[in-house]
Each structure stands twice: as C-alpha cells, then as structure tokens.
Amino acid sequence: MIRLLNILFLFACITVSAQMTENNQLKLATDLLFSNPEKSAKISEKAFAEAKNYNDKIKALSKLVNAQMVLGNISQVINNCVKGINLSKEKNDTINQIRFLSMLGNQYQQLNMNNDAKKNLDEAENLINTIDLPKDLLFIKGNVYNVKGIVFKNELNCEFAVKYFDKALDVYNKLPSRDVITTNKLLIDIQKAVCLESLGNSKEAENIYKMILKVNDPGIGFNKYFASVGLADIYLKRNEVDNADKMLQTINVNEFSSYDLELTGLFFKLKSQSSYLKKDSKLYLYYFEKYNNNLNQISQSQNQIISRLVKNDKENFAEKINKNLMRNIALIFILIIIFSGLLLFFYRFLRKKAVK
Predict the structure, then answer these.
(1) How many other C-beta atoms lie within 10 A of the C-beta of residue 182?
(2) What is the DSSP string of 39-54?
(3) Where does the signal peptide begin and end (predicted)?
(4) More confident of the two residues 5 and 44
C-alpha cells in the first residue's frame, strides 16, 4: 500500500511537471525516471545545483523528488520536500507549495508520524481552499483528502476518515477515467471499507470488497488482493472459515511479497488465524512465524529510514522522530509478547489434547 501511494503521488508530480517548460537535461531525467531512477536523480541534482533562477530550481527539485520516490528514499524525499516548500513560499507559488506539502504529509504518514503528516496536509488543504485549482490538477486535491483519511484511519478515528475518503471520491468522480484515477478510487474504497468494518458496518464493507473484485479494469492492480484479504478477514470474524479459505486461495502472495510488506503481512496473519480456527497447529506455527518475520522486516525498514532522518536533520527534529520511534518499538514489542503468549497457550492446549 505504501509503495502504491508513492506511485500515485508520483503521477501527480509528473503531470504538474509536464506543464512546465523543460530543458534537454530535465527531459532526459524524466525519460530515465522508471528505467534508471539513479541516473535521473543525479541529473536532477546537478540541474538543481546549477540552476540560476527559481523556475529552473523548482523544476529540477521536482524531478529529483520524483526519482527519489521511485527509489523509495523517504528520508531524501522529506528533506527535498522541505526545500521545495521553502522555495515556493518565498515566491508565493501556491501550486508548488500544495504539491510539496502533500508529498511531505504522505511521507510522514508512511512513517506513522501522524501529527507531522496532519500538520502538512492541513496546510495543503488550507491553501487549496484559497485558490481555484485547474481541472487537470484536481487530483492533487483528491490525494490530499485521501492521505488525510488514511491518517485518521491510522489514529482509529474512522468517522473522520470516512468523511475524507468520501471527499476524495467526490473529487475523483469528476475527473476523466484513466488507469491512475481508477487505481486511486479503488484504493480509497478499500481504506473506506476497513473503516466501515471497524465502525460495525461489516455488510457495507463486504459489498465494497465484492464490488472491487468485479472490476475489470487494468487500473485495479493489487487492489484486488487487498479486497480479497478484506473479505477473508470479515469471513474469519464471522467464523466462516471455508469462505475465508476460498478467498485466501485466490491470492498469489509471490506476486507482491517483495513489493508490499503490509499486504504480505495481512495475508500471513489471516492464514495463521484460519489455521488456528481449524486447529491445525503445524500450519498455524508456520504462518505465525512468517507473520512475525514480516513485522520485524517492517520495523527494521522504518528504523533504517528514521535513522537516516535523525542523522541528517536538526536536533529538535531528531528528538521528535525518536519519540515516534520509541512508541513504534514499544507497540511492536507488546504485539510480539501478545502473539507469543497466544502461541504458547495454543501449543500447550494441543499437547494436552494429544496426551488425552
């Protein structure tokens, strides 16, 4: 999901950048964005350093952020988004302020730094309300609403989250149908369904997941797997193990295991829960270990990114990140203890049953 959000923001950046006149150097950076993002980043960085005026600087910086998003260098994206915000503020360039603020909020959301995410997204939303965005840039507004919804969802404030998801959908429904728009809308539908289920509207959530699985469009991407996982989760909570297993069997985890750790973790978690309900201790232990390893991978990845931010930023910013880091580590530690306790209980239960 995180990688997908980056790609969606990237398309927004590319579209806005395409409206700017580019020199041959920056055109090459654009052409190399997906085929050779490392070279694209080097070209853009050099162009930024050599730029003589604001327009050239902001264009080069935009290309650099694009390449760093493709590379997944969150710490570098954050640093350069801050540069972009400061540059565009100096020139009263509202459009670019909104772009960089929304991208910055998205990066903080990925690190679960929700207060920082909301601060930047709120500022982006306030600026959006002061101007009339051109129709071909409306998706930026939709992206801001979408990520704000995700932030509220992560804070377990699903009532506000659903409101922002609906606002985002309202924006995207006004835009021409394209693969990226379809992907965005389906992504929002999935997030909204998760919130509806937590609010007790599991039937409505189920209907959304089923609707997504019926979509026959290239833009559906991995959203079909998120919908399948969501349906399987609902079925397991209803103790409909057979229905859950049928959904999980439609998922080829190898297609996304190296691409999306969040989705991979959800799959292993549900497989372990299904095995537990079927009293299959061998499979339960197998999938639980995979789920636990997945949690550790996510934690290590976030810790590495945060470590780079701490190294490169000022002391007050580093102190704020450390607080979030300690809270995340404490939460993961508690989760590991809980799951270890459940594992020990289930192991003893099976041993007693085997002795009888």
Answers:
(1) 18
(2) HHHHHHHHHHHH--SH
(3) 1-18
(4) 44
pLDDT 10s digits, 342-353: 776 666 666 666
Tokens 């934690």, residue located: 299
Those residues with Cβ within 8 angstroms of residue 43's Cβ, 6 or more apart along the chain or in another chain: 25, 26, 28, 29, 32, 63
Q: Name the token pair of 8.
A: 């969606």
> How far is Cα 121 from Cα 115, in angstroms, rounded to an integer?
10
On whether the CB atoms of residues 195 and 162 are closer than 8 A, the answer is yes
Cα dist. 39→1, 33, 68, 81 in Å? 26, 8, 11, 20
pLDDT at 13: 52
If we measure between CA atoms, which residue out of 265, 241, 238, 237 comes closest to residue 253?
A: 265
Angle, vertex CA 337, rays to CA 336 and CA 343, nearest 5 = 85
Distance, CA of 50 to CA of 56 (rounded, Å)? 9
Tokens 């599991």 label which residue? Answer: 202
pLDDT, tens only, 52-101: 999 999 999 999 998 998 888 888 999 999 999 999 999 999 999 999 99
